[in-house]
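Action item from last meeting closed. Structure (285 res):
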């Protein structure tokens, strides 16, 4: 069995390098949020708090809700940060830090992303669940195996959107089949994971996006009666890495803006709180 060298598995005082957590700090149910301040928002709704910890943009809080242990971690923005978070979570769960070898008995984590997003469809549900995520970032192709990639959806997307060859090849991954059943009260659909916030999502300030009418093209796309519901920047990497490593991922997002009709919710905090409270209730069952 391979031993992970110091340069590959970086451990400081028994803690994984970026997340600054020890193996005993994690639990089966993990909530990921982008914003470090949202860790505190969710923590305030818990029944009991065991610890707070922070390092760079990675804030962590472990506590309990309805007698279930939950670990909350902020990932920061983007799939590059997700690459760090999921790999280090898995290392905490499945690598023995003393021997630097993979544990004989593997643990599977439930990984819930609670995020914010921009809506694509004009009817715009306030809270949506991502049955599939299409990644525009290319991260999946840096890993050897392409297991869990839905090539049928990805190929249809590239064809229908007329995806430029100079861009990263889109990939598609589904959420965990068991977890999505728990969130059946939310509208399910396809989520686009963009590699940036402005031009990659069709926003034009002083620089214009090179993909014209992106939102209209996304609005029309459909696969197996599922439409593209929203834009965000993390889910495809969460889905791909989690499933490759044997974990169960799902994303629940509040929809704060509508990209096609150019609106933004007047009370985003109310929608985010509703998403958090309803998700905590479901997770803790």
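Sequence:
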């Amino acid at each position: 069995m391979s031993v992970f060298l110091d340069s590959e598995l970086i451990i400081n005082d028994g803690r994984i390098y970026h997340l600054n957590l020890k193996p005993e700090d994690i639990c089966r149910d993990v909530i990921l949020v982008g914003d470090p301040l949202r860790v505190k928002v969710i923590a305030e709704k818990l029944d009991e708090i065991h610890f707070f910890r922070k390092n760079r943009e990675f804030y962590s809080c472990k506590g309990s809700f309805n007698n279930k242990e939950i670990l909350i971690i902020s990932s920061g923005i983007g799939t590059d940060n997700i690459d760090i978070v999921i790999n280090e979570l898995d290392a905490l769960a499945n690598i023995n830090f003393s021997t630097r070898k993979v544990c004989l008995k593997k643990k599977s984590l439930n990984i819930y992303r609670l995020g914010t997003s921009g809506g694509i469809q004009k009817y715009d549900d306030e809270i949506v669940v991502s049955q599939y995520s299409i990644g525009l970032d290319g991260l999946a192709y840096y890993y050897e195996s392409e297991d869990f990639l839905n090539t049928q959806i990805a190929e249809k997307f590239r064809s229908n959107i007329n995806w430029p060859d100079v861009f990263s090849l889109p990939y598609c991954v589904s959420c965990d089949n068991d977890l999505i059943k728990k969130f059946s009260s939310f509208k399910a659909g396809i989520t686009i994971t963009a590699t940036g916030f402005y031009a990659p999502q069709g926003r034009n300030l002083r620089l214009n996006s090179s993909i014209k009418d992106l939102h209209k093209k996304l609005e029309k796309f459909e696969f197996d009666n599922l439409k593209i519901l929203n834009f965000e920047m993390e889910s495809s990497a969460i889905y791909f890495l989690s499933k490759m490593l044997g974990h169960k991922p799902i994303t629940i997002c509040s929809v704060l803006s509508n990209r096609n009709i150019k609106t933004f919710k007047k009370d985003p905090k109310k929608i985010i709180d509703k998403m958090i409270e309803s998700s905590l209730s479901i997770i803790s069952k």
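Note appended to the action item: The first helix runs from residue 36 to 43.
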